Amino acid sequence: MTEQTRTDRRPTRQRAAIADALARSPEFRSAQEIHADLAGDGTRVGLATVYRNLQAMSADGEVDVIRTADGEAVYRSCATDDHHHHVVCRGCGLAVEVTGDAVERWAEAVAAEHGFTHVRHTVEVDGLCAQCSAGSV
C-alpha cells in the first residue's frame, strides 16, 4: 500500500469544512475545538474524521501543527508554503512564524555527522510574549 500525497487525495466535504474552520481563526486549535466549531455550525463530522483529516492536511503541508506543553497536537492554517518554525507564547497562545538559516544549517550538519540524509525537522520555541511578560512582572 502506498501513502497518498497531496496531489492524489480526494477532496471531501469534511476536509473542506475543516479547512474553512481553520481559516476562520489565526490561533492554533485542537481537533476537539475544531470538531466543536463544526458542530456549532451544524456541520456533522465525526471526531475521528477530524483527526484523520488534520493528520493528512499536516502531512500535505496545508496546516501547521505544534505540541502543547501537555503533548496535545494543535493546528492552524499555514500562512506560508515555505519551511518555517514557530515561537509560541505559553501565556496567550500567540504564535509567530519564523525562519532561521542557522537552525537549518545546524540540523543538516548534525544529521550528516551521524550519516543521515533527506532530513526533516521541526523546531518549536515557546516563551512569554511582550504583553504576557509585562503582565507577569
From TrEMBL:
Family: Belongs to the Fur family.
Co-factor(s): Mn(2+); Fe(2+); Zn(2+)
Keyword Transcription: yes
Binding sites annotated in the UniProt record for Fe cation: 83, 104, 121
Positions in coiled-coil regions: none
CDD domains: Fur_like
GO MF terms held by the record: DNA-binding transcription factor activity; transcription cis-regulatory region binding; zinc ion binding
Residues annotated to bind Zn(2+): 89, 92, 129, 132
SUPFAM superfamilies linked: Winged helix' DNA-binding domain (SSF46785)
UniProt-recorded name of the protein: Transcriptional repressor
Assembly behavior: Homodimer.
